[in-house]
Amino acid sequence: SVAMELPPSHFSAARAAAVAVGYLRYLRGGPGRGLELRELRRARRQDIDDVGHKYYLELELEDVLDKDRTVNCTAEVLYHLGSKTSAPDVQVTVQGELRSTEEAEQEFYNRIRSLEKELVAENIPDSHGNVPPELEPIHLLAWVASGYLIWQNSTENTTFHLAQVKHVKQVKRSDEDLQFDYVLLLHDMVSQEVLPWEVTLLWHPQRGARVSQS
Amino acid sequence: DQVLHIVPETLQQVQHLQLLCSTFTLDLWKPLLPEDIRAGEDLHIRVPAPLVQEVKDTLDQHMISYRVLIPDVQKLVDQSMPRERSSAREVSGGYAYTEYHPMEEIYQWMTQIQKNNSELVTQHFLGKTFENQTIYYLQISQPSNKPKKIIWMDCGIHAREWISPAFCQWFVKEILQNYKTDPKISRFLQNLDLYVLPVLNIDGYIYSWEIDRLWRKSRSPYENGTCYGTDLNRNFNSSWGSVGISFNCSSDIFCGSGPESEPETKAVAQFIKSKKSDILCYLTMHSYGQLILTPYGSTTKPPSNNEELMQVAKEAAAALKGKYGTSYKVGSTALILYNNSGSSRDWVHTIGIPLSYTFELRDTGDYGFLLPTNQIQPTCEETM
Known about the structure:
The complex is a heterodimer. Chain A is of the alpha+beta class. Chain A contains three helices and ten strands; from the N terminus they run E-H-E-E-E-E-H-E-H-E-E-E-E. Chain A folds into two domains: 4-95, Nuclear Transport Factor 2, Chain: A; 101-213, Nuclear Transport Factor 2, Chain: A (Roll). The longest helix of chain B is centred in the C-terminal third of the chain and has 19 residues, at 306-324. At the A-B interface, helix 1, strand 2, strand 4, helix 2 and strand 7 of A face strand 13 of B.
């Protein structure tokens, strides 16, 4: 079957784009880098018999810490047929370079490692939308963790966003990773529900982030 | 203006940075003097906005990595200063329009607004909420002997969308501050009356301040008080109960026990029905999403005046974008958002009011319902 063009404003295109952004945040986000969708430029959809629905997307993203810079990427999102239990397959190609965050992230890593008491925080942002500057990296790591959840749990009938970090607790480890146990509130635009999700995120400046399967 | 954080790695980089600081006379925050810049030590410089791109380019050229420590210095300054809003103070004696206000303060604000602008503004009773709070709307009307058409705007149907009531208050302030001097506004008021309802779902709004910031619905009890609240924007009599709703009272899109089952819905519906031949345009403000939505949500079949609806909405989105570059998408709910029935906007259109729109204000999900207070002003300004 052939891929048909979708108006980028159509909700099915927007939903697929949100999955791609979630996946990208998981893969490339960090305490010094948060990626945001600036615009969905183009969307096509292909219905593949016995397989599912595949979306081809052209996205323009911006780095929240450096909004003057944008980066283009292409993504493919495949929702599996009739599946409530299997995550969509996502592939993303970023065109060009993302701004280097090595130094900022190393600094964050050192700061957290040297804390005597494990970091604990809640309600990020607060009710008035404020995030204290020293918690901004924790906020961006929550985007990484929520990116994973959004990628893993999205269907064509959901549109998830991170509503708030309800709670975060650092857990000191004997290896070199940083560990943060998050309780994240995810908002689904379609059902309007806001539900808590627990997720443990491991992060290392060179190795990046991964969600711990517990 | 931005503040950049750099840790120079080599002597060469230090020298280049020293040159940069003196050539552009950049404001060094740390260290204080260029001669104190050292390899391996933190450097913080404030770069004036017009030079930001150039400075970043030269850093890139010299392979000097940097991080943006403060993306907007002015914003941070404004945030940390006590509010000194000259214009706002003139209109209602010290009301901070760039902050979110609890319901009690909004009630006081309405009283003040009417008192200070009694030649133009009257406060009216619309109805009562489930918890017996009084719902008021403000009528902004220039005395005249010719009959005028009405533009109705309501805010705060959904409790957690705090930017919405903030916008209604801002809107009123802007009109009252500028109607004598702004020719567009004064012409507007010569021909039209504005009716503004700052908070419809008062019970829910109070609940979101006191108990649960992310509450959406009203606070009427169901199932013997085991669950609370109806989604007021699924409770109107437009294909009620058909799609994009839940009959389960614990759902956030619970549509109530029947169309207009909730006192808040009834209060609005009754009033609009009574004035329907005079109402030209109905606006209902929500967040988030950056969308201007046209009927319908329950079907993709376009309304009879779809071309006109889309034309006006597109012009509005273009004007909005012209202010700060914020992009709003335009279209029917069924096409760009999801299917839903029972919305106020759809019901208003079905009873014959030609222009009916839902605005979903900033942002697109990064802060969502928790829009920072420093975005209140730009959001409101662009939406005006």
